[in-house]
Design goal:
This protein has about 200 residues and is of the alpha+beta class. The protein is about 25% helix and about 20% strand.
Length: about 200
C-alpha cells in the first residue's frame, strides 16, 4: 500500500526511531529488511509467495492418536438420557468474540460492545416454550446448585442448550459447573453442565 499524504511506511518510522536511539539501519527498502530476515531465520520465505499447504489429517490421526482420544473422552449416552428428564438443557460456558479473558471486561469500550448484564443466552424457541421474555428472570439449577438471572434471546444458541460468557463472574455461573480434571494435564475443565430452567 502506498503511503497517503505525508504518512510514511512502517519501516521508515522504525528506522527513524532506531536512528534517534543511536542505531543505524542501512535499509533502502522493505525488501532489504526481508532479505535480512531470510538470512537470520532459516526457513523464512517470501511473504509475497507463500508456500502452498494442503490439509492432511493423517499425520495427526496416526501413532495411536485416535485410539488415545477415544479412550480419554467417552460419551455415556445412558447417563445423559437419565438426566434429560429433569435437566433438559445443556449449559455451555464459552468465550465472546470481543473478549479475551477476565481483564478485557475492564475495558469500557469492549463492555459497551459486549456486556454480560448477568443474562443467560437462550434459543428464542425455548424461551417462547417456557413463556419467557427478555424481561423475565429464571432459576437455573444443576447438580451443584442454583442461580437466578435474566435471559436473552440469541440466534447462535441451539434449541435445548443455553450459553453464558465465561469472562464474567456475576452471577457466578461457574459454581453450577461440575469440575472434571484432565487425567493427563491435570487442568480442571468446567465448561458444560446439564441444567433445568424455570421461570421465576
Amino acid at each position: 500500500m502506498d503511503p497517503i499524504g505525508e504518512s510514511l511506511p512502517d519501516w521508515h518510522v522504525m528506522t527513524a526511531i532506531a536512528s534517534g536511539l543511536g542505531s543505524q539501519f542501512e535499509y533502502e527498502s522493505s525488501q532489504d529488511i526481508q532479505t535480512e530476515i531470510m538470512k537470520l531465520l532459516p526457513g523464512y520465505y517470501n511473504l509475497g509467495q507463500p508456500r502452498k499447504l494442503s490439509p492432511n489429517p493423517d499425520a495427526y490421526l496416526s501413532n495411536g492418536f485416535a485410539a488415545g482420544a477415544a479412550s480419554r473422552y467417552k460419551v455415556v449416552p445412558e447417563a445423559v438420557s437419565e438426566r434429560n428428564g429433569h435437566q433438559p438443557f445443556g449449559l455451555v460456558m464459552g468465550q465472546l468474540l470481543y473478549h479475551s479473558g477476565k481483564l478485557s471486561t475492564k475495558a469500557s469500550g469492549l463492555i459497551a460492545v459486549a456486556s454480560s448484564a448477568g443474562r443467560l443466552h437462550m434459543n428464542a424457541q425455548d424461551m417462547e416454550r417456557l413463556g419467557l421474555t427478555e424481561a423475565s428472570r429464571v432459576l437455573v439449577k444443576s447438580d451443584r446448585g442454583s442461580l437466578e438471572m435474566g435471559v436473552k434471546a440469541d440466534l447462535s444458541v441451539m434449541p435445548g442448550s443455553c450459553f453464558f460468557p465465561e469472562h464474567f463472574n456475576d452471577p457466578p455461573v461457574k459454581d453450577l459447573m461440575p469440575v472434571e480434571v484432565d487425567p493427563v494435564t491435570g487442568v480442571p475443565y468446567f465448561k458444560f453442565a446439564r441444567v433445568s430452567i424455570e421461570k421465576v
